[in-house]
Design a protein that fits this description.
The complex is a heterodimer.
Chain A lengths: L6 H25 L3 H22 L21
Helix pairs in contact in A: 1-2
Chain B lengths: L3 H33 L1 H8 L17 H11 L4 E8 L2 E10 L9 E6 L5 E5 L5 H10 L4 H30 L13 H31 L1 H16 L17 H11 L4 E6 L10 E7 L9 E7 L5 E3 L5 H14 L4 H36 L2 H7 L3 H7 L1 H4 L1
Antiparallel strand pairs in B: 1-2, 1-5, 2-3, 3-4, 5-6, 6-7, 7-8
Helix pairs in contact in B: 1-4, 1-5, 1-10, 1-12, 5-6, 6-9, 6-10
The chains are: A mainly alpha, B alpha+beta.
Chain lengths: 77, 395
């Protein structure tokens, strides 16, 4: 891997960014009816778009996702 | 990293907190969907009251004339509240009942604020939206129904928090957003459950928590009367609800309140003896003119006999929290784009709930096919973990 992201960042990076986006969007619309509303559409809209993208994106052609088929990637122990 | 015992405990908590509340949460998500758009739906169904356009500056009718007109529609009923919409002061909504106490038996009459002509005797307790509303708010069971749904909301919060903890062990070897379609249907839905769950996390926490707070509204208002108003109203203690012929003009009360707290807009007026007032006062609730303060209310207690302002207490912190939590639950404070996003996030939550239920059902199926049902219930040590944590097993 290039920049060798820490396991924490790999795991929680995107969830934290999207969570902060939603939280900021929910807050700004409360305090302003102009830029606040506008930002809330971005803050809530981007996470919705991210969900839609990953839920419906076409299956990647090659499947390098599972380097070791014998090891269950989801089993924590 | 979590130990296997810890994972087992978190799994158990996640499983049972979600299983208990899932059916009710599905109901709340489904009934909440049309409620997001209740204004627009009312518009389409023609149930939304609209006052005719009149030139700017058309003088407004006295509130006493408005009340008289509304009472004439339902003789024998008394007025509990008079209110106006946040974005339209051309219409007064008058709530009429047989008792000053909270009741389901109420009528709502819309009166033109300029002409004091009755615009509509709004049908209450009927129709599709009322059904959605009652199922969403109290399951037709009043305060116990609200508190029950509030408890289900608490379980949802527990399910969300435990779900976040479990996200780590399940996603350890996956990239964010990976959905393993090439594997079994169950694995695909597990990945979708984790993806949609973690993205909607903050929204679901906020809407769940504010919904739960809303179920306590009745209790908070009761406590406010006991806690704060009883001190302010000590001089009036023990007096009965002031008789109709003892009451001064309502318009005078409202004018006095607005002079007392200038720069505010009127939200609603609670009549003497009702749950938002005292037996001897008209309580005028004003709201601020700024986006944030427009959500907050300033009560002004006006002596119903003399028309003099008795007190304008600051709203206590718990009622302020309640009022701020309401828009965060309704999603009605960011225009139509926010409503649409609210609906999409609601649908995503429905998918999280549904896929969670599916994952649990699919977990049981192979086991109960292989062994008697009793064995599945008790015979599997750490059954939840074994099957939740190793999705492939049952696939």
């Amino acid at each position: 891997m290039k920049n060798a992201p820490t396991p924490f960042r790999t795991l929680w990076g995107w969830p934290i960014v999207l969570g902060l986006l939603i939280a900021s969007g929910l807050a700004t619309a409360l305090i302003s009816d102009t830029w606040g509303d506008w930002w809330s559409w971005v803050g809530l809209g981007l996470p919705v778009a991210v969900m839609a993208w990953f839920a419906w994106r076409p299956t990647p052609a090659a499947s390098p996702a599972d380097p070791d088929p014998g090891d269950d990637p989801a089993a924590p122990f | 990293m979590l130990s296997s015992t810890a994972i087992r405990r978190w799994s158990w908590t996640h499983k049972w907190s979600s299983l208990v509340c899932t059916i009710f949460m599905l109901l709340l998500c489904l009934t909440g969907l049309p409620l997001i758009f209740h204004h627009e739906i009312g518009h389409l169904l023609g149930t939304e009251v609209e006052a005719p356009a009149m030139p700017e500056g058309t003088p407004r009718a006295s509130l006493d004339t408005v009340i008289t007109a509304a009472k004439a529609v339902h003789p024998g009923r008394m007025v509990q509240f008079v209110s106006q919409a946040e974005d339209d002061d051309k219409v007064w909504f008058v709530t009429l009942t047989h008792t000053p106490d909270p009741t389901e038996d109420f009528k709502s009459v819309a009166v033109d604020a300029r002409t004091a002509k009755v615009l509509s005797d709004i049908p209450t307790n009927q129709g599709f939206m009322n059904l959605m509303f009652r199922l969403h708010v109290d399951l037709f069971a009043g305060l116990p129904g609200k508190l029950f749904l509030g408890f289900m909301g608490l379980l949802l919060l527990v399910a969300i928090v435990t779900g976040v903890v479990l996200y780590a062990p399940f996603m350890r070897k996956l990239q964010f957003g990976d959905v393993r379609r090439e594997r079994s249907t169950r694995v695909k839905w597990l990945d979708l459950h984790n993806l949609l769950g973690v993205v909607t996390l903050v929204w679901a926490l906020v809407v769940g928590a504010t919904g739960m707070i809303n179920t306590w509204a009745d209790l908070m208002i009761k406590y406010w009367q006991y806690d704060q108003l009883s001190t302010l109203l000590a001089p009036y203690k023990g007096k009965p609800v002031i008789a109709m012929d003892q009451r001064g003009p309502l318009q005078q009360a409202v004018d006095a309140a607005r002079t007392h707290a200038p720069g505010n807009k009127l939200s609603f007026i609670a009549f003497p003896g009702t749950s938002f007032s005292s037996p001897h006062h008209n309580t005028v609730f004003l709201r601020g003119a700024e986006p944030l303060t427009s959500r907050l209310l300033q009560p002004v207690l006006v002596d119903a006999h003399s028309g003099q302002v008795t007190a304008a207490p600051q709203l206590p912190w718990y009622l302020t929290a309640l009022l701020v939590s309401q828009p965060l639950h309704f999603g009605d404070y960011g225009g139509m784009p926010m409503k649409i996003l609210w609906a999409l996030l609601d649908i995503a939550t429905i998918v999280v709930l549904g896929s969670g239920l599916y994952l649990w059902l699919r977990r049981r199926a192979p086991a109960s096919a292989a062994a008697p049902a009793t064995a599945t219930a008790t015979g599997l040590p750490a059954g939840a973990t074994a099957t939740m944590a190793r999705p492939e097993q049952s696939a």
